[in-house]
């Protein structure tokens, strides 16, 4: 009996970059995710740090080739008619592992597209009994809807191609210079300026966020906001109040994330007293890191949690005097601090 029809859509998504607690850097990636029955397909993979092949930073010819494969207008890249659905954010090889599936047309000359036999694959041939995702799929999509959604990408529309540039406003002090270097390392463009005076409107519209140094006066902040509003640029504003680069990078990454609330796995992060409260909409890996400034303004980092959380609200104790918390899921980064 054929599988029931599932709806098919596309939505912008991101793999949040950042400077991790151990000093490693995680590259920022914007990509197009697959939405099945109104829910991102990636959400069904609880502990997976991966992106779809439809990433915004790949060359147009390669991007188009990936779309045509999904439309079955090009040969499958893997044996047995298998296609990569999600792969490593850092490379394109199978060595790191990838989620693959068979994509085929519906039987009896039908117009449908079917995704089936999902598996975690690390070599040329998938081992379904050992590494199959037996609870996912098969999905049967109506041909007209499927082609219309992917056809938007062939026509030049790229959901997920966000503005990954940040303007840092302030004197060229050491903190902003280190922050700019860290952002560039993870794939986010960053420039430092004293203000936005004289910057052409078309350039202002390329920024996704503005970060103000601690010493920036209110009149300068107001002038910067007016310049962006006059250019018709919708940007997020971040205050660099705590001089901790990994924390500031996380705040800027969170500001750049314009994913709709209904498509986020981490729905709430709150610091209350000596505890942090995290709420997730679906099972996913969550990493909680707490920061505080010790004597002589030295940064103290505390790893609070790194595990897969089930849907619902979770409460965890905070280390003594730690107040700023960064939460990372496979698709987002959120920062919380006590309310004044």
Average residue-wise pLDDT: 87
Count of helical regions: 7
- Element-level helix/strand string: EEEEEHEEEHEHEHEHEHEHEEEEEEE
Quickly count the domains. 3
Helicity, as a percent range: 10-25%
Rounded to an integer in angstroms, the radius of gyration calculated over CA atoms is 22 Å
Which class of secondary structure composition applies to the elements?
A: alpha+beta
Spatial strand sequence of the major β-sheet: 6-7-8-9
Q: Which spans have pLDDT < 50 for at least 5 consecutive residues?
A: none
Beta-strand portion reads 25-35%
Largest sheet: 4 strands, antiparallel
Distance between the termini: 59 Å
- What is the strand tally? 20
Shape, per Cα inertia axes: globular
Task: Describe what is shown at a glance.
This protein is an alpha+beta fold and 340 residues long.
Task: Kindly describe this structure.
This protein has helices at residues 60-70, 128-131, 143-154, 174-185, 201-204, 218-230, 245-256; strands spanning 8-15, 18-19, 25-26, 29-36, 39-40, 82-86, 98-105, 113-121, 139-141, 165-169, 189-193, 209-212, 236-239, 266-272, 275-280, 284-293, 299-309, 312-317, 324-329, 332-336. With 340 residues, the chain is an alpha+beta fold. The strands form 6 sheets. A 4-stranded antiparallel beta sheet has the order 6-7-8-9. Helix 1 (60-70) packs antiparallel against helix 3. The chain is globular. The model has no long low-confidence stretch (mean pLDDT 87).
Topology diagram in text:
Blueprint: E1 8-15, E2 18-19, E3 25-26, E4 29-36, E5 39-40, H1 60-70, E6 82-86, E7 98-105, E8 113-121, H2 128-131, E9 139-141, H3 143-154, E10 165-169, H4 174-185, E11 189-193, H5 201-204, E12 209-212, H6 218-230, E13 236-239, H7 245-256, E14 266-272, E15 275-280, E16 284-293, E17 299-309, E18 312-317, E19 324-329, E20 332-336
Helix pairs in contact: 1-3, 4-7
């Amino acid at each position: 009996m054929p599988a029931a029809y599932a709806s098919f859509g596309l939505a912008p998504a991101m793999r949040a970059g950042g400077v991790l607690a151990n000093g490693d850097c995680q590259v920022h990636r914007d990509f197009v995710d697959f939405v099945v029955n109104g829910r991102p397909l990636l959400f069904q993979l609880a502990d997976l740090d991966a992106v779809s092949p439809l990433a915004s930073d790949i060359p147009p010819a390669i991007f188009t080739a990936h779309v045509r494969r999904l439309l079955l207008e090009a040969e499958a890249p893997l044996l047995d008619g298998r296609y990569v659905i999600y792969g490593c954010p850092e490379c394109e090889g199978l060595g790191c592992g990838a989620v693959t599936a068979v994509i085929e047309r519906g039987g009896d000359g039908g117009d449908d597209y079917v995704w089936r036999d999902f598996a975690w694959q690390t070599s040329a041939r998938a081992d379904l009994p050992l590494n199959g995702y037996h609870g996912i799929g098969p999905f049967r999509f109506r041909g007209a809807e499927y082609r219309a959604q992917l056809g938007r990408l062939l026509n030049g529309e790229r959901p997920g191609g966000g503005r990954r540039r940040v303007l840092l406003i302030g004197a060229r002090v050491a903190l902003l210079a280190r922050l700019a270097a860290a952002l560039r390392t993870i794939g986010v463009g960053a420039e430092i300026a004293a203000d936005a005076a004289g910057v052409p409107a078309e350039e202002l519209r390329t920024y996704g966020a503005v970060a103000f140094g601690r010493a920036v006066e209110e009149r300068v902040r107001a002038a910067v906001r007016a310049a962006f509003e006059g250019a018709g640029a919708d940007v997020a504003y971040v205050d660099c109040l705590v001089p901790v680069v990994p924390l500031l990078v996380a705040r800027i990454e969170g500001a750049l994330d314009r994913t709709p609330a209904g498509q986020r796995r981490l729905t709430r992060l709150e610091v209350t007293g000596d505890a942090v409260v995290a709420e997730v909409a679906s099972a996913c890996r969550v990493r909680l890191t707490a920061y505080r400034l010790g004597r002589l303004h030295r940064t103290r980092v505390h790893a609070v949690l790194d595990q897969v959380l089930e849907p619902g609200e979770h409460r965890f104790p905070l280390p003594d005097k730690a107040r700023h918390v960064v939460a990372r899921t496979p698709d987002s980064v959120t920062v919380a601090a006590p309310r004044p």
